[in-house]
């Protein structure tokens, strides 16, 4: 009888220990589950934040204000006319001279369209060429083959940048009139870029 009581007691203790182990396992499992959930949440938040940053960067790259675009387009256009005039006088290569004259003709026409657009928007365009002045000053001191190379390289760089900006505005500008103006000028810039790249290729 005594052995039976001891056996019963022992089994009871074992049962309690097993139950305690089970509860501990459940607690540890819950803790691991919560930890995993926190890791997933943290990773999700990081991905979401990165996606938002990329979206904001893309948006910022394509939605410059209509006023800012008109200002830069005006200065860039006037610079093309002034440097084109230099090319028609200072260049040695006949094709470079011809390209310079095309700059004067086409950008003068685009400038008139821009002036009409700015007047419609009651926006005052700048009368200077802004950051392009230093390039103009450098080219104005050059002639012959040296001028040709420097001018051609500058025109390739300028028109590549201009094409991207005008395409962005033609697709995403918040102002319908600015959007239409940019769309009209895009093929002109593309024509210029193709022409100056062809001249550059022949010079190499």
Structural commentary:
This protein has helices at 2-62, 66-90, 94-120, 133-140, 144-172, 176-203. It is mostly helical. The chain has two domains: 1-62; 64-203, Up-down Bundle (Ferritin), CATH 1.20.1260.10.
Give a quick summary of the entry.
This protein has 204 residues and is an all-alpha fold. It has six helices and no strands.
Task: Looking at this protein, list some descriptive labels.
87% helix, mainly alpha, 204 residues, globular, Ferritin
Topology readout:
Elements: H1 2-62, H2 66-90, H3 94-120, H4 133-140, H5 144-172, H6 176-203
Helix pairs in contact: 2-3, 2-4, 2-5, 3-6, 5-6
H/E topology pattern:
HHHHHH
Low-confidence stretches: 1-11, 13-21, 23-30, 39-62
Helicity, as a percent range: over 70%
Structural class: mainly alpha
> What composes the largest sheet?
none
CATH architecture of the largest domain: Up-down Bundle
Write down the overall geometry: globular
Number of structural units classed as domains:
2
